[in-house]
Each structure stands twice: as structure tokens, then as C-alpha cells.
Amino acid sequence: MRFGAWGLALAALLLAGLGCWPLGQRAAPWADRDRAPLRVEVQNHHFSDVVIYAIPNGQRRRLGTVGGLGSETLRLPPEFEASARGFRLAVHPIGSRASYTTENITAGRGDTVILTVAGTLRMSHWHIRN
């Protein structure tokens, strides 16, 4: 009978510990960053609407359109995040032959690429915000 009482107490202690186990776990500080998608925040200071393309490996993919003097946040497809070679962004104002293409951008999940389209297209620039 003595062994049964100890066994019952041990089983109760194990069940109580297992029941509270997930509540004591904390997410790693970088966990939200790992789940966040890669984004492109476009700030258009140009008067024309612009079309934004992503170029991961020589092939253009349309991401979206940003209105003149407006801003928009665009999401990159998941396969861009896995590319170790990076990608480039291209800006084409609607109704114009002018364009702007970035250098190679290497960014990952949770990063935001800030693309500023200047009124004079060749003065456009970008940076990465973590």
C-alpha cells in the first residue's frame, strides 16, 4: 500500500508538471522575426504612378503599382526569401520610358526594404530596415 501511495503521488506530480509545461515556455526573441514576411515599403515622391518589379534571377515579377506621391507596402513571394543570391527591384513610371533598377539586395524574413522613388528617377535609393 505504501508503494501505491508513492506511485500515486509521483503520477500526480508528473501530470501537474506536464499540464503546466507549455505555459512556462517563452518564445525566442527572434521567433516573430522568423515568421514575418519580407516586405518592400515604397515611398513614391514621383508625380507619376509607378510599377514595381522584383527581379530574383533575371526574370521580372510584378509586385504592384504605387500611386504618384503615395506610398504602399508590398509583400515579396516566399521564394525570394530563400534565394541566397538576392534580388533587384525595378521601378517603371507609367507613361514614361525612364526606369530605375536597384543593385542586388540581399534581405531575409522579417526585413523591410525601403524603396524611395525620387522625383528625379535616377536619384531614387533604397535601404534595409530590420
Brief overview:
This protein has three helices and eight strands, in the order ααββββαββββ. It has 130 residues and is an alpha+beta fold. It has one domain (34-129): Immunoglobulin-like (Sandwich), CATH 2.60.40.
CATH architecture: Sandwich
Number of helical regions: 3
Give the radius of gyration: 25 Å
Which regions contain 5 or more consecutive residues with pLDDT less than 50?
none
Give the overall silhouette. elongated
Q: Quickly name the level 1 CATH class.
A: Mainly Beta
CATH topology group: Immunoglobulin-like
SS elements, strand count? 8
> How many domains would you count in the coordinates?
1
Q: Can you list the strand order of the major beta sheet?
A: 4-1-7-8
Mean of pLDDT? 84
Measured as a percent range, the helix fraction is 25-40%
Q: CA-to-CA gap between the ends?
A: 62 Å
Q: Would you give an account of this structure?
A:
By secondary structure, this protein is α+β, with helices and mostly antiparallel strands. The chain has one domain: Sandwich (Immunoglobulin-like), CATH 2.60.40. It has three helices and eight strands, in the order ααββββαββββ. The chain is elongated.
Topology (SSEs and partners):
Elements: H1 2-24, H2 31-35, E1 39-44, E2 50-55, E3 61-66, E4 71-75, H3 78-82, E5 88-93, E6 100-101, E7 112-117, E8 125-129
